[in-house]
Amino acid sequence: MTRQARAGLGFVLPVMIGTVLVLVIPTIGAALLSVTDFDIYALADIANLRFVGAGNYAELLRMPLFWRSVANTALFTAIGVPAAIATSLGVALLISSATVRWKPVWRVLLFAPYVTTLVATAVVWRYMFDRHNGLLNYALSLISIAPVDWLGDPRTSIPATLIFIVWKAFGYNMLVFIAALSTVPQELAEAARLDGAGAWARFRHVTLPAIGPALLLAAVLSVANFIQIFTEPYVMTHGGPAQSTVTVLYFMFDQGFTWWNLGMASAVAMIVFVVILLVTAVQARLGKRNEWW
Amino acid sequence: MVVSAGSLLRTALVALFALIAVLPLLWMVNVSLMAPGTAATFPPPFWPAHPTLANYRELLLPHPGGLTSYHILPALGNSAVLASLTTVLSLLLCVPAGYAFAKLRFWGRARMLQALLALAVVPAQVAMLPLFLMLKSVGLVNTYAGVLAPWLAGVYGVLFIRQATLAVPDEMLDAARIDGASEARIFLSVVLPLLRPVVVTLALFAFLASWSDFLWPLIAITDQQHYTLPVALAAISREHGGDTELMMSGAVVTTLPVLLLFLALQRYYFTGILGGSIKG
């Protein structure tokens, strides 16, 4: 073995061993665990462990709360992804126009929510959403809208949580879009303007094709992130009211660490895993078809 | 220079969005400085009438003989130690490996790199339940080592460093080899100085991610003395949710350190998100 080969292996082995230990083995473990009835009795004595095949999966499909969590997560994703992408893109377009001044200042301020600690700002927004003394209802009262029980009403709990999530997360994709927008050919936009193309036509035919790949990638990654919502309902609503914010991962955590049904929780984890894989596959397919990356 | 109306309007609109973005953070700081019980009135006050540090004292100072203890000070210590250890661990594991994958020839390089790329799609939550059981069986639940364990996997860190290292010219490494430098010497004296900006970026990302991490510490720590700040804050919020001013001071203590760190190192942060080049 050459010196270079020895050094190379020495440099990568620690992280490869670590990755196998804390990622590969546990992921295989999750698949195995999901076909057992691992629960608090097995936790006490492993002799109580039984193989149940697809039993956990079959039972999940019969549990109303599991379906509720799937529906809630789907709703979070279906409203949240377009809302988040539109906010990021809107602000990016605005800040990218050549005539806006003091851009670095705005960029830092707009990005600040993204770097804050999720639990801390979730606590802050719980009070922003307060029915009696929250800033949001105060702002609404200024335009004569009756107070809304944002986090206490099952009809508004998901939209309210989404307002917080979009506020927290839009900065990341905003940065990505600002970078993508800087690649839009200015001569082309100028030529279109001289040809009499309106703002929308220029956006549709000049800007959009240039940022299309970034937009699609951001959308797919957002879907994956929204499927994994956990902390927001845990801190802001505890899954309520009336289980309206129980997400799939919240359900998994509850099964696993409140009820110690680790077999059942692992089955949920595997389902999430497969869905994320499918989303990633769609992304790869779309990218290949359009020869973007 | 003539300022057009359109320019002014757009700037004002961007400023409005920026205001909406920072308003909750400003409000958090303001309320944390209000006297206990004064925030919960209508209309909600935005600025503290009589700024006070009472909430911070209540939260951070020990209460001799008192019943309530929020464990925020130990949590602050735990978070600081864990985030620092995570940063060191990530750098030690990922920087040499990222460099090796970019520049060194060795057996199995392509296959190992492919494996890492494939692992990037595994959601961290999938591994958490079995990892908890593994740590429990070796007695590492409720220890720093247990909280650090997931960071032994360095998928993103390695790929990030590798991408940045590809830009290092091979001629520099070959020249050092001809001069008789050992591979370790080349890495330490030739490559590391060039990689300094991306190493800072990775360190920053690791520190922030560890500091703000929630689900794993929530699982791996079950005893109050070992809580990290986000876990402690979530627990206090479940018990003392009514004390708005106190909760806001807890939120400030939890998030201000990372916010300041970001402001100080924002250049590294932004280049990191945008793909990480090794331009200084």
Automatic annotation (TrEMBL), chain A:
InterPro entries: ABC_transporter_permease (IPR051393), MetI-like (IPR000515), MetI-like_sf (IPR035906). Belongs to the binding-protein-dependent transport system permease family. Keywords: Cell membrane, Membrane, Transmembrane, Transmembrane helix, Transport. The chain crosses the membrane at residues 12-34, 70-96, 108-128, 158-184, 205-227, 259-282. The keyword Cell membrane applies. Residues 70-283 form the ABC transmembrane type-1 domain. It comes from the Bacteria. This is Sugar ABC transporter permease. It is a multi-pass membrane protein. The gene is lacF. It is found in: Cell membrane.
TrEMBL record, chain B:
PANTHER family: ABC TRANSPORTER PERMEASE PROTEIN MG189-RELATED, ABC TRANSPORTER PERMEASE PROTEIN MG189-RELATED-RELATED. It is found in: Cell membrane. SUPFAM superfamilies: MetI-like. Residues 76-265 form the ABC transmembrane type-1 domain. This is Sugar ABC transporter permease. Its main location: membrane. It comes from Sphingomonas glacialis. The gene is lacG. It comes from the Bacteria. The chain crosses the membrane at residues 80-101, 113-135, 147-165, 186-208, 246-265. Belongs to the binding-protein-dependent transport system permease family. Keywords: Cell membrane, Membrane, Transmembrane, Transmembrane helix, Transport. It is a multi-pass membrane protein.
